[in-house]
User: Fold these one by one.
Assistant:
Number 1:
Amino acid sequence: MNPKQRRIVIKVGTSTLTNELGKSNLRTIEKLAMTLSDIQNMGNEVILVSSGAIAVGANKMRLKEKPTNMRMKQAAAAVGQCENMFLYDKFFGYYDKTVAQILLNAEDITQEEKKENLTNTFDALLEHGIIPIVNENDSVSYTEIESEEKLFGDNDMLSAVVAVLCRADLLVILSDIDGFFDRDPRLYPDAKLIEYIEQIDEKIYKLAGGAGSRRGTGGMRTKLQAASLATAQGIDTIITNGKDPSILYQVVEGKKTGTRFAGARH
């Protein structure tokens, strides 16, 4: 690959994929599909890590609110995964792209043999120009939905794990805020965006605070943990606003956007 042709993992969260009513945000999903297709046409390899299955499934099942008990969460996830892949297949199909679904459990990345098979699967798909779309397998896995210390944390950690598995050159986490700030911009209008972070230390974690948006579950802390995992393996990580997916053009062109965390240079 030449410097402009890279393997890029993009993580998109529930708050980007759904609107305030919890329904699929079709305009954003279509723009995401177009932008990623275009980025692949530039010679890059693209992997999408997508959240949103439970929220979309709950809406499709006409539930009055997002479910709270395990059986309904897993049922909603099963419906939502189907709906999300239908939309992705449709919108990526407009741009002559083939997509593949990969649903992961914690065991898939902790067992060496499974991990190797997974890496081979990603490589095979990417070699054939197929865009893998990855999600936690919420319909059968309870670790992500229920545990206190979630392994993947609303797919932020999952995206970093996928980036490491696939030996990616870049991880981009699309959030509902513009990047990493010196304090919560939703509470403090004078909060300043930090454009570049060379090392994620305790001081940076203290700035991260707690929870995220209302529709997702991943706060800035889980994004920092994801960035920490990826950068430790030499993968540059960018957190930026996913409201308009065309911001990814700025990312691949090397322009400043959001917060860039430097990958360790071993």
Number 2:
Amino acid sequence: VVMGASTARAWPEVFGPSAPVSTPSWSYVGEEGAEHWAEISQEYSGCKGEHQSPVDLTGGRPAQYSPLSFRYRSNPLSVLNDGKSVRVDYPPGSYLMAGPRSFELTGFHFHVPAEHLINGVRADMELQLEHRDRRGRVAVVAVLMTAGRRMNSILSRIWQHTPGGRDQRFYGRQTGINPLFLLPNDRSYYSYTGSLTEPPCTEGVDWFVLAQPVEVDSSYIQSFLQTVGTNARPVQPLNGR
């Protein structure tokens, strides 16, 4: 695991509303829960890989710092409740710059509680911003969120329009959002190579976990739990990363 700085096109479409609906069903609990993902289907065999996510970020070492640059545009809100998370689809034109590398934002979603830990501490919620470069490589920026009293206009807008029913979507042409306003002021980060945290658990994902959490009003977290419930995959072994 590296703090401060930072394998081709055969990536499946796995993020957000573009995820295929014909894939084998999975869950976070029970017989289709996270500990059984690799057994559900051959398609999910990657979930027993050696470089899985999320992880507990301990023992990180300082590295040459390459600042992250977020070039996000405002766009109409397109939000889906797929029963496993609240997912916001994002159209082309917004980018993450990680050093010389450019990744286009494809969407973002939430986990309660947070999936990543920092030195054994778990936040109340985690925002995961998904990006993809021209070669198909995936980069995810994780923003840890703690329950407090700070209102956030973007989260309020998303939660206000999130459908209560599974597989329902809201699209608001006049409802604008920009995830730039969900980021902390301090953009320092932990970096490591891992996987998707949902089936098919594809490895080779570049993770950037922002070190500074964002305080959000506890009502947002309670609203998410009422709509979706808990949806955090257990921490995976570092295996030398």
Number 3:
Amino acid sequence: MAELFSESPAVFIAVVFAFALMIGSFLNVVIFRLPLMMQRDWREQCEELLQEPAPNIPEGRFNLVVPRSKCPSCGKPIKAWQNIPVLSYLLLGAQCANCRQSISVRYPVVEILTAALAAICAWRFGFGWEALLAIGLSCALVAISLIDADHQIIPDSIVVPLLWVGLVMSLFHPLPGTDTLFISPRDAVVGAAAGYLSLWSVYQLFKLVTGKEGMGYGDFKLLAALGAWLGWKALPTIILMSAVVGAAVGIALIVFRGRDRAQPIPFGPYLAAAGWITMLWGEALRNAYLDLFL
């Protein structure tokens, strides 16, 4: 099998795409359930102070595995054949098989997005550990982005292990044929520290000047994790891309959709997108920037 994947990149990419569709289906579960699990933990830690039940928090055993997925409208458990990535959505006509309520298009979009990102990683790195790790990072960034977009939180349970994996990966440097992954331990440690401190400094300065909090600590940790994976040299590219795109989207929302300027905009999705692009084409982007302005 390894020889087939090595000699036939198209087969490897196709297998990765198909398998990543299933990962995307699981990510839908993570994106929905993990914030609820965090809220349950917070409630348990603070119940002595609250002295009242928290609303909209599931009771009983609740994690990424149990209970079985069910329709949010009628509560009927979803059967295995109704949970096939993308295909079930099409066969069911985007409706629950029991109550006929509409199923959000977001579910197949997350599955296809995850599969597409994984396939691109497979194409970029080829069969091997680099592709596997790049796919893992891509999946984590998808979950982080959508959770932050929905709840404006970046879970430590995802971003902290991501940081440690990046640091541990650096211990295997150098490997032949690698471009952006498996950087040196020094670059990884400096990247993690610089990533965290750069946004933390901006946060503290903004708070000192305005008295308001401009971003959350999850953003610091996410950039630190990306610095651990990609090194300190990648940080300017990530920060510049995420800031420009984030500002453009924020202005567009205010101008065209009348969004309140005081309403916070999650920064995690822009950091994640910029980090993913830098992982694949960071060196080319840096060279293009230097050629353009220097």
